[in-house]
Amino acid sequence: MARVNDRSSYRLPFRPASSLQRGLNVFSTRTTRWLRRSALAFGILAALYWSGVNLALNLPLTRDALNRMQPEQFAVDWTRAWSWYPLRVAISGLAADGQTPSEQWQLDAGRAAVSLSLLPLLRGELRVHDLDLEHIDLRLRPRPRPDSADDASDALRAFFPVIRNRDPDAVAEPAPEPTGTDLVLEIDDVHIRGEHAFWVSHLRGWLPGEVRGSVRMDTASSELALADGALDLSLKSLRVGDRTPVREAAALKGTVAIPPVRLSTLEGLDFLRIATVDAEIDLPVDNLDFLALVVPGLEPLELEGQGRLQGRIRLDQGEALRGTDLLVEANALAMTLGRFHFAGDGLVELQVDPQNEAAADLNVTFDRVVGELAAGGGEAANPTATLFSGYGLTAALHVSEADPSTTSTATEIEALAEEVEVGFRLEVPGMRVADLSVYNRLLPATWDLTLLGGSGLLHALFEVTPERLSLELDLASDEADLRYADYRATTDMLLELRARVDAVDTPTLHLEGTRLRLSDAQLGDAQLGDTRLSGAESAAAEPWEAELAISGGTLSLPTPGADADPIPRLANQLAEEGFGSLLASGDGELAAALKVSELDWIAALLNRPLGLTLDGAAEIDAALRMEQGLLATGSRLAIPPVPLSLALLEHRIDGRGEAALQVERGGPNPNVRLRVELDEGRMRRRDEAEPSIGGARLDAVVAVGALGAKAAESARVDLVLHGAEVKDMAVYNAYLPEDAPISLLGGAARLMADLELSEDSAEGNLLLTTEDISIALDEQQVIGALQLDVLVRDGAPNAMRFDITGSSLRFDEFRVIGAAASDQRAQWHARLQLEETEIVWDKPVELRMKADVTVQDTRPFVALIDNLRGKPSWIDELLSVEDLAGHLQIQIADDQVVIEDALLSSPEIGVHAKGLASADTREAMLLLRWHNLSGAVALHEDEKAFRLVNAVDQFEAYRPGKTPFGSVAAQRLDGATTTASEAQRAPRGAETALDLGSLDQPAPTEADNPFLNEDL
């Protein structure tokens, strides 16, 4: 217990808590005293600052001192200014203006607050921060350049703002060399808010909203820079020049940065090439020029339009970045590609690929659209032509960096465009075409083929990539109006064009899949201006169908320079000149199949030489060689064996055969050859319903020296008739005059021919042989073998006029049957050797013939003189003399037969004849000679008269059809005698005095006649 008490009674020698308390109290008293003194000093200093600085800020002397720093470049004024603490000033009613060497500027603000940095000010830099502006009005006026009176902005100068305290006519000055004393304005953290107005050059508007950023401006060089900019603005009004103000709402929200640049050097939207922007935008636009600035490679595609722009834009010095997605709703949208112009309303969308920042897509979608083609050189008469109209046209442009692994060093958008690859796609879905003639650009100008008109539907897809150019075009019409050469057709047409060009060293045009189909085509004559054929062709013309399908082959196109890319060049050529220009420059081979319901188009192609027609339907195998878009040597169309009909001149042959059309020499007017081979042919004239010749085997070759309007003039036709059977020779009676004294009763014959014909010439030969021909001659009938060997020396085939001089006609083993005399022995023969003979092979035939004649005897003509037997008695001798020779001169024309001169004679006897047979009359005069005795026989219709007196005189005086026949027909037979003196007047050569009419040369005399030989 004691120990406890001792411990409890222990005490320290001092009290520490009391000492600490006293120390703290002393410190607190001293601090309070210091704070009071400091507060008093601060209050005194603040009062002095507030009173002195605020008084100084509102003194005119302060403004003057500030404005004297660089009065030519800078001036400022304010309504009231104050400062709550050093280096920060608040101003209301701020009004500043100035000018740089290239522009004048003015800035007014309802309220401003700014903090200054002191040390930069000592270096000649006005560096401020935390600049707050409210309700600003910014104006910029470019100064005109002194060296150009035609400055591009002169026309807009009347709409520039007038800057306060500045001469509006002050011209631009060159940027001065830095002196070290020029004012540099640098503002960190600018904050602008309120209702703002701007008037920059000819643009002015009202732009409420908020802007943040840091600005640096060099008043000497006029360069302005913006860093860390943030925008949240709404455009309420915009006016461009003297245009009506745009009052559609607009919004811009995002960030922006601008490197040092002279604002006066920027035109339009050039700042997009240098700025870094990330903003959400919603604003009206009256043009689409900004797209060309942010999409490299867009230059060939011109876009115009007015509408509303919405979306997000991310740019870094003109290069669109990932996240960019813009949409323009345009109510006035126009797109131009070369000579093509599309206008309507629709959408334009620009998007950078979210997965690949090196690629971007520009899509243009038309709702309603009209496509037009602007005139090229020499087309001023029709400046524009409507291509189509409809809905849904789309165009897509794909742009990607050529080498994504590298970073572009381009400083200009043009240079950047060279570093990108561009792909383009244009789709035209189901558009209405009002006039097909505008699509003649699909055809080479060197082809004599034209779309004259008609309406239809169009679907097209055009694609261009760095590796390929392709075109798919479908053009359909149920009333297409076509012209080829002198022919015209109205037809249902479907063209499916499939074309592709690959980017290789030698660009090649692929056309496989291309198809052209014509159906229900009505052929006509282009020179008539309608679709009707003239003449006989009109009745024969029927609707026809054709389809051409290209299955393979390529055309090589001209190669550009060694370093040139062919695809852009060809795309530009296609847009400017049309697809026909590609075809016109191509060389190569194409394989195709051609189905036709009527082969007569080949005859039309050849311009129908000698009335050529070729009927039949076939699928033709075509091998086409092309040079400069034209058919070249070796091109060939092969027609397989099918039923064919070939017609030339007035004749037609139907059979089964094959044909080929081949180009012998290419070029604009190629030399072509058509070969037709027919078997089992049936031949007839065009005007005959049934064939008269069968079993024909014919080879025909039609060679045309130059296709075109005058092709027929250069044509040559070779015909080889290997053999044919004439069923009944009586069919040739149709060629004889109705009242001819001779007719064919029947018999079959064999026919062969080898002819070469042109428009104005004919050569060759024809052979007709028969074993049993039956011929009626007056009252006699002869039956036997006949051989007609026709030598064609010349002629005019279109007129069916031929010179057959040199031809021959042989009668062998003939039997003579008649009422006056009959002889069943097949031994009579005769021969005619034609001289100076011309024939027109028509119905009826026209003939001018001179021939030498040999006959066995006069039996076929016995009926003519049979009832003269015994009067006198020497007449009987005429009927028994054999081996006669002579000549025959006859003319058949105007449906009558005129025997101008006919002679049969021997040393003992002679029979000379003239006569006429027509529908109105039948008359003849015979001069009969027996040694030196003569007599004349007049025949008129069914009457005969014989006279011995003046027989030669009467015969010589007689002209068939001209001499009054009654003067000789009335002579009585009885008492007729002749005197010796009359007999002496009947020499053997008396026939040489007869008039031979219009023949070129007189008939040969007896002395000149090779058949009047004493050996006969």
Topology (SSEs and partners):
Blueprint: H1 2-8, H2 16-57, H3 60-67, E1 74-77, E2 80-85, E3 88-99, E4 103-116, H4 118-122, E5 125-142, E6 184-194, E7 197-200, E8 203-206, E9 209-218, E10 223-235, E11 237-240, E12 250-262, E13 276-285, H5 289-294, E14 301-316, E15 319-320, E16 325-337, E17 340-352, E18 359-374, E19 384-391, E20 394-401, H6 413-417, E21 420-433, E22 449-453, E23 456-464, E24 468-484, E25 487-502, E26 508-510, E27 515-525, H7 536-540, E28 544-556, H8 566-577, H9 579-584, E29 587-596, H10 600-605, E30 613-615, E31 618-627, E32 630-631, E33 636-648, E34 651-665, E35 671-685, E36 693-704, E37 715-726, E38 742-746, E39 749-758, E40 761-777, E41 780-792, E42 794-796, E43 801-803, E44 808-818, E45 823-840, E46 846-857, H11 862-865, H12 875-878, E47 882-893, E48 896-905, E49 909-917, E50 922-930, E51 933-940, E52 943-947, H13 951-957, H14 966-969, H15 980-984
Parallel strand pairs: 5-6, 5-7
Antiparallel strand pairs: 1-3, 2-3, 3-4, 4-5, 6-9, 7-8, 8-11, 9-10, 10-12, 12-13, 13-14, 14-15, 14-16, 16-17, 17-18, 18-19, 18-20, 20-21, 21-23, 22-24, 23-24, 24-25, 25-26, 25-27, 26-28, 27-28, 28-29, 29-31, 30-33, 31-32, 31-33, 33-34, 34-35, 35-36, 36-37, 37-39, 38-40, 39-40, 40-41, 41-44, ...
